[in-house]
User: What shape does this take?
Amino acid sequence: MPAEPTQTAPKSWTIGSLVKWATDDFRARGIESPRLDAELIVAHTLKIDRMRVILDAERPLEGVELAQLRDLVKRRRAYEPIAYLRGEREFYGLKFRVDKRVLVPRPDTETLVDAALARSSHLSMSMRQLDLCTGSGCVAIAMARQRPTAQVFASDISTDALAVARDNALRLGAYNTAFFESDLYAAFAGKRFDVITANPPYIASAEIPTLMPDVRDHEPKLALDGGEDGLVLVRRIVTDATAHLEPGGLLAVEIGAGEAPATVLLLEAGGFVDVRVHRDIARIERVVTGVVG
Assistant: This one.
């Protein structure tokens, strides 16, 4: 079994003994959800659900299974995100493929989708949307699936991220999406949209070293670093948004904790009206929306 354990390994391995050993090992290393991560790794390797992990605790593990588990345990010990180990993450009821080329979709970002859908309900049959900093494509694809008659355009500066997003769109049946390699609006000169969504990098540069190792050491820095105050990309998005929105068009931007007041001022100064702040599931001010005046 995995080398250099922090806990004594049993002589023979069952599902239950492996889960207990990995849980103790992860806990000793300061991993936040050791039991859950151990169960998810075992379930993924054995292609069973978490309930079967519990019910089949006495089932012996075979050599090939142990070898696969050893690799995943070693990767999690190095704080690689569990979503990368499993190769997928659920977002808005859809399973997205993810790896080190893209950020792991967060439940907090579902707030961005909720806000954009709610504030564009009058456009549900004919919406043209642009999703900036699309990453895995989770926001664009979730919107496209919710609005199958919409035209959804998505962009990212990362070629690698776009490869992941296009694969997700094909696999999830979001055929009304199109992806473009672009530095924000660069590929959309002269184009206008009804809705612009964006989940840009918004962590201040000085805060990057303080992040959890799962994020700091494994997720792409390009998708995390928002510059000196975290708002460098947000400012560019807001400043140029009115040139790409139809009259009455909606801008919805995800931001970091504590950044809502400054973002509200940016939208108001940029000519947006009815500016609103939307809280995520943890009641943190997570999304700011506004309408072109």
Notes: The two ends are 63 Å apart (CA to CA). Residues 1-6 have pLDDT under 50 and may be disordered. Residues 255 and 286 are 5 Å apart (CA to CA).
